[in-house]
Amino acid sequence: MSVVVRRLVAFLAALVLAAEAVGVVVVNVVLGTVVRNQEMSLAGTDPEVMSRGTWVLGGVFGAFLLLCAVLLVPAGARDRAPGRVARIVLVCCAVVHGVLGALTVGLVGWAAFAWMMVALGLIVFALVAYGPEPARAEPRPEPEQPAAPAPA
């Protein structure tokens, strides 16, 4: 695979994850504010607790997405595969995108599903692109034919 393609995919995946992190934080801040202002309650839960929980969850998930973006930048800059821990974090991010993509179809719509699948595809492609290079097949020499038996 071309070096240019690998680097481009790694940087593009980092950019998409950074944009997604900002979007997740903004959506969670808005949702937390709505819950707080409306004084909504779920089975008697304190609205202030729900609001703070939404803000914290948005911040944690946004930080996780930014971490994933930061892990992809050196991979693209150096054109080397992410390390073991970075690969584990990126695989977890890919799994989260797959699950959330399945949930967004029913809750948000097909456009959000398409965004999640594009992000998933970029993450997986960035992981697979830096996999081990396939061994080059060298031509095998023809096997030697056994000599014909000597006439008697």
Description:
With 152 residues, this protein is mainly α. It is 74% helix and 0% strand. It is built from four helices and no strands. The longest helix has 36 residues, at 3-38. It starts with a helix and ends in a 23-residue tail after the last helix.
In brief:
With 152 residues, this protein is mostly helical. Helices cover 74% and strands 0% of the residues.
What secondary-structure arrangement, pairings included, does this model have?
Blueprint lengths: L2 H36 L8 H32 L5 H24 L2 H20 L23
Helix pairs in contact: 1-2, 1-4, 2-3, 3-4
Q: What is the arithmetic mean of pLDDT?
A: 88
Total beta-strand segments? 0
Number of helices: 4
Strand content: under 5%
User: Main beta sheet: strand number and arrangement?
Assistant: none
Query: What structural class is derived from the secondary structure elements?
Result: mainly alpha
Distance between the termini: 60 Å
Low-confidence stretches: none
Principal-axis shape equals elongated
Helical percentage = over 70%
**Sequence of secondary-structure elements:** HHHH
Return Rg in Å: 25 Å
